[in-house]
Amino acid sequence: MDALQFFVEDHQDEFMFDLPAMYQDRLAFEEFLGEAKLSWVLKSWMDETSEDEMIERFSVQPGDLYRLISTAKWLLHASHELASLFQHKDLLSHLAKLTVRIEKGVKPELLPLVKLEGVGRARARVLYNSGLRSVDDVKRAPLQKLTGLPLIGPRLAQKIKEQVGGYVKADEWQNLKKKKETEQQRALTEY
Asked: What is the DSSP string of the chain?
């Protein structure tokens, strides 16, 4: 409860209404804290907090988290449509980015990477932390660098390279296949 109140204090300028006074209307204040907790859960999700940590910190079950994220995506989609309808073009790109952040559960710097098919929040973070921070970085990266990263195998590396327009030479692909086959045979003989 104390952590939630600190969260509310840190973000009180961002609320679109006056906060209810805790001592004047206890019921309204408790309802508000419930809504603030939902905001905190969504913010934590977008800050790439793991599901396990969220379950422990917020006592939120995976199904509840999924429902909350789905509802937030729907509300953001509706907000985007309303902004478009009422000619608020200044809000459209912000709402589109926020929608992807909610859907994928990522910080803003990972947005270009999570747009790639087969790349979610974990793989995008691996790419980003390895220095591949943009689609152009991924395009220029050698195939061996991609396959050397955790969570990215040869097929996914090739698929990623094809999506970003990167060219994979046939001999480079064959060398990679041979290397993987050799590693698999070595692993089998060690058993």
From this structure: -HHHHHHHHHTGGG-SSPPPPTTT-HHHHHHHHHHHHHHHHHHHHHTT--HHHHHHHH---HHHHHHHHHHHHHHHHHHHHHHHHTT-HHHHHHHHHHHHHHHHT--GGGHHHHTSTT--HHHHHHHHHTT--SHHHHHHS-HHHHHTSTT--HHHHHHHHHHHT----HHHHHHHHHHHHHHHHHHHHH-
Domains recognised in the chain with CATH numbers: 21-105 (1.10.3380.20), 108-169 (1.10.150.20)
Per-residue pLDDT of the chain (191 residues; tens, 9 = 90+): 788 888 888 888 887 778 787 777 888 888 888 889 999 999 999 999 999 999 999 998 989 999 999 999 999 999 999 999 999 999 999 999 999 999 999 999 999 999 999 999 999 999 999 999 999 999 999 888 998 999 998 889 889 988 998 766 677 667 777 776 777 777 777 76
Q: How far apart are CA 148 and CA 168, in angstroms?
A: 15
